[in-house]
Amino acid sequence: MKRAMKGSVLAMMAVAAAAVAGTALTLQGSSTPAEFEVTPEVVAADPGPYAATLGRGMANTWLNGGAFEPLTFRRMFHVQGDSPDEMIVGKSSIDGYNVWRGGLWTGARARVYRIRDGKFALVRTDTVARHDASGWTAAPGFSPTLLSSPSATTTQIRLPSFWRRGVSNWFCVVAVDAQGRQSQPSNVLELPVPPVPEKDADPVQSKVALKLRRPADEDGAAARDIASPAHVQAKVDANTGIITFTWDASPGPKLAGYLVLVSDDAPAQQRGFHLVLSQRPTDPAQQLKTGDLVFLDKEYRRWDPDQRCANRIHNIREYSWPELIPFGNDANRTWSLVEHPGPLPAEFKDHGQTCLQLDLRDDQPVVLGQYVFSSTEQNWYRVLDPDKTYVVEFRARSQGVTKPATFRLTEPYTSEEMPPLTFELTGEWVRHRGTFRVPRRLTAGTQVGQMQLQFQGPGVVWVDNVRVYEDSAECAAFVPEDVAVLRESKLSFLRTHSLIKSPMGYSLDALTNARGMEIGSGLHVQSQYTLDSLLHSFEQGGVNPWLQIEMCLDDEEWRGLVEYLAAPYDPRTDTPRGKPWAYKRYQQGRTQPWSLAFDRILFEISNETWNFLFRPWIFNGMAMTDEATGRVYRNGEIYGLFQEHVIAAMKSSPYWTADLDKRMSFVLGGWAIRTTADGYGQQSAMTSPHSRYMTVAEYNGGWDEKESPAQVTDEFFFQALSQTAQVAIPRADAQRRWLAEHRRQFGGDLELGTYEAGPGYNLNGLNGVKMTPDQTEAESKVLKSLAGGTATLDNFLARSHRGYTLQNFFTFARNRLYWTSHARMENGGQAYPSWMALSLYNRQGTGDFLGIRTISVLTADLPRTARRDAMPDAPMVAAYATRQGDRVNLFLLSRKLNGYPSRLDDGFVPVKVTLPFTQAQRITLHAMTGDPRANNLDAANVTIQTRDIPAAAFHGELIVNDATGVDARGLPPASVLLYVLEGVK
Questions:
Q1: How far is CA 174 from the centre of its chain?
Q2: Measured between alpha carbons, how far apart are the two ends of the chain, in Å?
Q3: How many CB atoms lie within 10 A of CB 345?
Q4: pLDDT above 90: residue 888
Q5: What average pLDDT does this structure show over 200-221?
Q6: What average pLDDT score do residues 401-410 get?
Q7: What does the pLDDT look like over 72-119, one tens digit per residue?
Q8: What are the tens digits of pLDDT across the range 429-486?
């Protein structure tokens, strides 16, 4: 029974200190030891080691885009109306929020899916005959719900510097009423886009927000009963780029305001916003229906921003040209992606589908380059190490070119200290390779330098597989330091996060390309890894794959993925035509199936399919009607059904074996804040019975939890330490109650887990939070501290104790800031405390979780915050125990902070634990202790100390003091103690 300890001296001191500090936090207790009893009953089966998500930047490569594969464009659309051949979707879906010009999707393959008898069915395949995307859209600074004041008759706009110059745009003004209805357009003005302004000046815009119960329909017909503004005029200031509009006020009903509209096309050329398929089906079942999901797939081998990009984004780098390609086509130079002109050398097996062809008609140099390195004074770009050797590699062939190709680093390095590397080009395909070392590490300033590969015409150059990487490992693999970290961490799985959140999807061909290539999504490099490089590195690191793959693949590709992973290939009996994907793996040097390299494989489609940030690959906000039964499915239910469709497609492969069925499990990603049967993840579990895990994100703080940015104050260190008791445990208990009811109703072996967890951070602009560099640094100081590490382990252990069988840390990555596990190598490369604590559990602490009975413990009354409910009597010490045979692992964690809330409190807590045995042959203590506020950002200030404890010190009770390797005062503040007792009797 837990003893109440109200009214003690310690409690009174705490209350007094809290009053001074202006917080409602109070501590309840005394110097009586915290007492726990470990019971022999197993309350949760061994969940095994914890997992992690693989962060970006861990691939051994410095450049993006050097594989020069076809530009893959894929998209998912949710049909909003019935039609024989037109996809009725919102304007923003058709023009990509004023990003795409018409024609982008013309010729694309279309796949139409519908729910029928509780399953997704492919009901139609077709091609897009017409893609129109021309008409009126809101001018800069405006939106359908952000208007000029109804009393205004003038406003100003300025077109951003990246807006396409040298063309005309057309403008008009409409009046808008309180329901969001718009008048007919005013008189239309054709205005040449002003030059990039010489002076920095802000336009004058008096705005009002129009709050609608339902968003304004941009595609709706104009309301004829609202008078249009008259006599619209405009004046352009060439010095500032500001355009000033004036008009006569609209008479009639009360208005909400005025909206300035712009178009890339004259009214006579505007064709509206349409996606029309080629065929008019004769079978009514093939007509497009409200709720259908349509996937469009198209590839490009040339890209002209004049034809494909709206004026608004014409000169934004991410929309203009593919990565590494620095120019659009003009009279003297053009580029295209073409099949490799033969003959190809026998060893050139990683060539993919295409290479880059440069047609150079003059002697002006063409540079393939990227800004990729800088100094240690910043945290975004990587830093070159003078102690490492770097490899420059590319394949090239030329015709008519007489000058060599050169590779160089730009400033801050000078050409004197870093002379260019030169490579002679020939008429045959040659693999060019060179190495360099930088003379110094950049330590001052934030200037960003480029790596540049330069070609000079006239002539034609074909180039492929441009790479820069450390010579310590293969391109795009893990470097030895990171392989060692993985092996030491004993992770169960690594989650392939870089393969999702793709803006335009990708193909299975790109996904399965050889290591050293990358996966493209639209004009972007989605991932510096392919499956080949990921699985190779996972095998080296001794970790199983958690495959997170975008939902954009078609059914044949899902079957092809199974073939790539699991089909044997014997060149004596198999053929490339009969087993194309297994042959591709075989060509990459992997003769045995990848599935045999791992004990287990997890599989998950896309990421947070409830999160509107990750559109279009989401199901939240959708409704689909079952064509056969009439049942309406929504949100998570649709997600679960689609996952079932993917699972069925994969299992229909002839290479899906009973062995693979045992090895591969399927994961659903839910929504942490929803813990009842109507939650998004819970709905998906009901409609996806073949999924084994329903997971959620469980962060300690940050934007995911909508918590305030952490500051380097005791209040925030304590807030991190108290999150488990105040948030994680109540939420885990709620999820556990739901799971019990789910199993009672539906049976099955569904399990709970987390797809992301650990310290949480805020990003500038998300949830309306503004973050300065100092605030970002402060969050890292708090959450990468000893207190942050203890809180992370506490979170994971508490959920494991409550039956969570899969938990995942976000992320295995090196950086000073945000969701990372380790310091960058130039800062020492040390692990942060959260990673250290979780790795300690993986190496030393796994096993069946035993029951814990709390006899007495110091508690705190935790106050309510914006996102946390008040928590009376929250324990300030946590105990967990696991068992493997005759080995018991006892974790003791402090949630206390010295000096807070009472300045006189040293933070130590006497602790006594009774165990269900009386003897142990060997006792080892692993202790992570010290200043709770210390962090590992710049040095290994927080470490784990391991020491042997005399077995004679234990007689059925373990008391934390100096005799058991700690301190006479007991458990130190914010510390982790792991006692490993072996040979217990």
A1: 40
A2: 26
A3: 12
A4: yes
A5: 62
A6: 98
A7: 999 999 999 999 999 999 999 999 999 999 999 999 999 999 999 999
A8: 999 999 999 999 999 999 999 999 999 999 999 999 999 999 999 999 999 999 999 9
CA angle at 807 for the pair 805 and 811, rounded to the nearest 5°: 165
Quick one: CA torsion of 950, 952, 953, 957, rounded to 10 degrees? 130
Output the six-digit token pair for 501.
């959140």
Bridge partners, 922 (sequence order): 982
472: left (phi over 0), alpha (psi -120 to 50) or beta: alpha
**CA pair distance 500, 511, nearest whole angstrom:** 11
**140 contact partners, CB below 8 Å, separation of at least 6:** 157, 158, 159, 160, 262, 312
Helices (H), 657-708: 658-663, 680-687
Helix (H, G, I), strand (E, B) or coil at 619: coil
Beta bridge partners of 115: 120
Q: Coil, helix or strand for 353?
A: coil
**CA 196, CA 199: separation in Å to the nearest integer?**
9
The candidate with the shortest Cα–Cα distance to 151, out of 247, 62, 70, is 247
Of 408, 410, 382, nearest to 59 by C-alpha is 382
Cα distances (Å, whole numbers) of residue 698 to 704, 809, 867: 8, 10, 14
| Average pLDDT in the chain | 93
Q: How is residue 712 written in tokens?
A: 């380097």
In sequence order, the 6+-apart residues with CB closer than 8 A to the CB of 618 are 606, 608, 609, 610, 611, 612
Q: Structure tokens of 945?
A: 């100390």
Q: 285: which DSSP letter?
A: G
Question: Contacts from 944-952 at CB under 8 Å and sequence distance 24+?
Answer: 944/836, 944/840, 948/922, 948/923, 948/924, 949/923, 949/924, 949/925, 949/979, 950/923, 951/919, 951/920, 951/921, 951/922, 951/923
